[in-house]
Amino acid sequence: MRNLKKKLNSLMIGLSVKAMNLKEKTTEKLREEDGDTNFLSIMIVLGIVLVVAVLFIAFKDQIMALVNEAWSDFEKAFKG
């Protein structure tokens, strides 16, 4: 019985040490910033592009009407 307790204690200690090492390695990896800022900036730009694309798709007719109106005003200003 005593031998079993010793084995269980040593197993628990070994698992605790491995868990602490895993925690340290995970924390270290999460704190590294190699390429993280580039990834973050790409995600932000991609989000902005997607929002603009959705807005353009949703309001395509209104946007095209405004652009056509502005273009015709521009042409009228030069024709005189």
Alpha plus pi helix count = 3
Q: Would you list the SSEs in sequence order as H and E? A: HHH
What portion of residues belong to β-strands?
under 5%
CA-based gyration radius: 31 Å
**Major pleated sheet:** none
What's this, in brief?
By secondary structure, the chain is mainly alpha-helical.
3D structure, described in words:
The chain is mostly helical. It has helices at 2-31, 36-58, 60-79. Helix content is 91%, strand content 0%. The chain is built from 3 helices and no strands.
Topology:
Elements (H helix, E strand, L loop, with lengths): L1 H30 L4 H23 L1 H20 L1
Key terms for this structure?
mainly alpha; rod-shaped
